[in-house]
Amino acid sequence: MDDIISSQDEKNQLLSLRERKKRLVQTTIEETALQLFQQKGYEQTSIQDIADAVMMSTRTFFRYFASKEEVLFGPMHAAMTDAISSLQRVAPTESPQKALRATFLYLAGLYQLRRDSFLIRYQVAAQTPSIASLYLYALLEKEPAICDALCSHLESATNRDEIRFPVAIFMTTFLVAAAEWLKHEAQEDLVVLLGGYLERLSSLSPM
């Protein structure tokens, strides 16, 4: 029995080591790509340029990222996915509005923790007409996932069509706050900034 436990521990340690190595390579690719985007421009930087800079083949690059766009927007999607998962920590008896408030404040906290990374990505996107409008609005793709998470977790979220409206309102409020935050080079605390917007929102209608 002890041998089985020891073997499993070794496997877990090996997997953990592999994950750490994978994340280290991903981080190196991201940081290098962002530097190239800033120096040469997003559209002028090829995947080959990135691969050459980190001394790997393009084939190896594609093991970590599907495209340049994923390098640029990946952290946004990852943060949103994490925020959606955080809904599971909300009491099932909570109202959709309070659950959404907690979720988007949590998302704002994730952005605040990686402010430098998000700011650089915003600046790169802002200089690239073909992707400028996608930087913030890429998050809108997650609206259906938020609706699904609410409907599957909250007792009061029984009508998906009705849930879409408050989700859209909270998403838009977050986008407005994030746009202002980034416009001012992320000098403010996004959690505080979003909280202020949500307070103004609650004064218009019961939350």
TrEMBL record:
Gene3D superfamilies: Tetracycline Repressor, domain 2. Pfam families: TetR_N (PF00440). Signal peptide: none annotated. GO terms for molecular function: DNA binding. This is HTH tetR-type domain-containing protein. The keyword Manganese does not apply. PROSITE patterns: HTH_TETR_2 (PS50977). Keywords: DNA-binding. It comes from the Bacteria. Residues 46-65 bind DNA. Residues 23-83 form the HTH tetR-type domain. InterPro entries: Homeodomain-like_sf, HTH-type_Tx_Regulator, HTH_TetR. The keyword DNA-binding applies.
